[in-house]
C-alpha cells in the first residue's frame, strides 16, 4: 500500500554510524543528518557522538521548540520498529516541559523588575558623590559582564531573544574582555554536554599528556572527540605525576565559525589589557595588577572546577543546558525526586568537601602514575566501562 509505513530496527539504524552516513532517530522517526552535520550550529561532534541511535532526549534538552519544524526535510521515510520510551525518559520529558515554562516566565520580565528594585536604594543615596557613583557603576557593569551568568548562559543562547545580540555578547565577553576564544569554548562545551564525564567522548577529561583525572586514561584510550589515541607514554607519566603543580596551554588548528570575529575579539583583549597595565606608573604596580586580576578570577575558576567535576547544580545544568542558571535551583528538587524514583545516585557536597574531594582524586591519580610497576601500555586498550559523574 502507498501509505504503509516503512520500519527499520535499532540494529539496522546502528549501521548508519559514520560521518558520511549519519542517521539518528527522534520520537521514533529516522532522519538522515549527514549533510546537516556540516552546518549544525552545535558543531558536528555532538551528532557524531550520538549517531545511529535514538536521540530524542538530547534533542529536547538542547533545542528550542521551534527546531521541531525543521526536522521533516531530513526524514528518511523510515520509522524505528522497536521504539520504546523508558520511564526515566518519560519523567525527564515532563521536567523538560517545566523548563520551557520557566524560560517563558523569565521572558515576561520578572527578573528585570527585580533588578531595578535592587538599584533603587543605591540611586537614592544623596551623600554619594558623582565621582564615586560613576566608579561604582563602571565596576558594577564589569562585574555583571565577567559573571558566569553572562559568560556561560549567552553561549547557550539563553540570555537574549536575538541570536545576533547573543553572538555579540559572546564575542564581547569571551574574546574581547576575558581573552578566551568563544569558538573554541563552544566546540568543546557542546561535546561535553552530550557525553558528560565520559573518558572516551568528553574533551573536558582528555588532558593527557599533562593532566589526568582517572587512572583509566593510563591505558591509552582513543578520544572520539579528537579522533586519535591519547598516548600515555613515559613523558606523560612524568608530567601527570606532578599534575598538581604544572599546567600547559594547548592550541589546535581547525576550521571554526566566525573565525574573523574570534580573532578580532582576541586582538581587542590583547590591545586594551596591556595598554591598561602600561598606564600604571611603575613595574611593581603593574605586576600587582596582573597578580590581583588572576587572584580574583581564580575564585571563579574554583567554581568552574567544582561544577565540572562534582556537583553544585551541574547535574541540573546538564539535564537542561538551555535553562538559565538563575532557574537551576528551582528545578533542583525535581531532579532529586527523579533520581530517587529511579534509584539513581544524587550526591551533594559542601564547598570545602568538594574541593578536598577534587584535590584528593588528582593526588591519587598522580601517585598511581608514579608507580613504576604499572607498565606503560604498548598498544591501544579500549575501556569498556565509561565513568559518569
UniProtKB/TrEMBL annotation:
Pfam families: Cyt-b5, FA_desaturase. It is found in: Membrane. GO terms for molecular function: oxidoreductase activity, acting on paired donors, with oxidation of a pair of donors resulting in the reduction of molecular oxygen to two molecules of water. GO terms for biological process: lipid metabolic process. Residues 5-80 form the Cytochrome b5 heme-binding domain. PROSITE patterns: CYTOCHROME_B5_2. One of its GO terms (cellular component) is membrane. InterPro entries: Cyt_B5-like_heme/steroid-bd, Cyt_B5-like_heme/steroid_sf, FA_desaturase_dom, Fatty_acid_desaturase. Keywords: Lipid metabolism, Membrane, Oxidoreductase, Transmembrane, Transmembrane helix. It comes from the Eukaryota. The chain crosses the membrane at residues 122-148, 168-187, 263-283. The keyword Transmembrane helix applies. Belongs to the fatty acid desaturase type 1 family. PANTHER family: DELTA(8)-FATTY-ACID DESATURASE 2, FATTY ACID DESATURASE 2. This is Cytochrome b5 heme-binding domain-containing protein. It comes from Vitis rotundifolia (Muscadine grape). The lineage of its organism: Eukaryota, Viridiplantae, Streptophyta, Embryophyta, Tracheophyta.
